[in-house]
Design a protein that fits this description.
Distance between the termini: 44 Å
CATH superfamily: Flavodoxin domain
Number of domains: 1
CATH topology: Rossmann fold
Largest sheet: 6 strands, parallel
Shape: globular
Strand content: 15-25%
Number of strands: 6
Order of helices and strands: EHEHEHEHEEHH
Helix content: 25-40%
Structural class: alpha/beta
Bound molecules: flavin mononucleotide
CATH architecture: 3-Layer(aba) Sandwich
CATH class: Alpha Beta
Length: about 210
């Protein structure tokens, strides 16, 4: 089993990556692999709402990292979203990635239900906003949100600050990793005895009539 983690922070090896790795360490202890794709360092085009992804095999007209992620998604059994806080929310490039990823895969049969979670880190304020913002992507995509014993947030300007001074944040990530591994193993162990719900094509009622 393997999990995909998207690091939406500008820094490849910053606080976000260290928080994701704490989750990954717990997954590894249970024999679950994790690949991390860093999507935060380059500008990423936003969604044009051209709707071509609906007739284009679930691919975006901007042929970039988003299409790479779309192609890779079926290989994975779980998804972790992580990022730093930029002005009380998620960084711009990561928002562009997530908007397009979700819009293009909206009708991608078979991706869910799989476990997923969202992590946000900051220096001082805004991690709750960001983690809730990321949660919005999980809440509408047939994913099973996994939680820890506190909100999945960490504090630190640099990784060493987070790792040495935010004992609760470090523990939160460790517990999140344990919970994530456990739910993956339960789902795997029951995959034949308890069939997954069949995908239902979404009904779109654009407003209440
Ligand atoms: C453009 C920008 C805006 C930021 N805004 C906030 C903020 O609103 N609140 C906060 O606590 N930290 C803010 N920070 C600091 C980062 O969230 C913090 O240093 C974080 O740990 C960086 O994680 P990383 O190492 O994974 O990039 C901001 C940083 C940048 C570059």
């Amino acid at each position: 089993m393997k999990v995909l983690a998207l690091n939406g922070s500008s820094n490849k090896n910053g606080v976000t990556r260290h928080a994701i790795d704490l989750v990954g360490e717990e997954l590894a202890k249970e024999g679950i692999g994790m690949d991390v794709i860093h999507v935060g360092a380059k500008p990423v085009a936003g969604c044009l709402d051209c709707r071509k992804c609906r007739t284009n095999g679930h691919h975006c007209v901007h042929n970039d990292i988003v299409n790479t992620i779309i192609d890779k998604l079926p290989e994975y059994d779980g998804l972790i979203l992580g990022c730093a806080v930029h002005y009380m929310g998620i960084p711009g490039p990561f928002k562009s990635v997530m908007d397009r990823l979700l819009y293009a895969t909206e009708h991608l049969e078979g991706w869910g239900p799989k476990p997923a979670t969202a992590i946000a880190v900051c220096r001082r304020a805004g991690a709750i906003n960001a983690v809730q913002q990321l949660g919005n992507y999980l809440n509408c995509s047939n994913l099973l949100t996994v939680n820890s014993q506190y909100w999945n947030i960490g504090f630190g300007w640099k990784p060493e600050e987070f790792l040495t001074q935010d004992a609760e944040g470090v523990q939160t990530m460790r517990v999140l990793g344990k919970n994530f591994a456990w739910i993956m193993k339960v789902l795997d162990a029951t995959k034949d005895s308890i069939p997954r719900p069949t995908y239902e094509k979404r009904v779109r009622a654009n407003f209440c009539r």
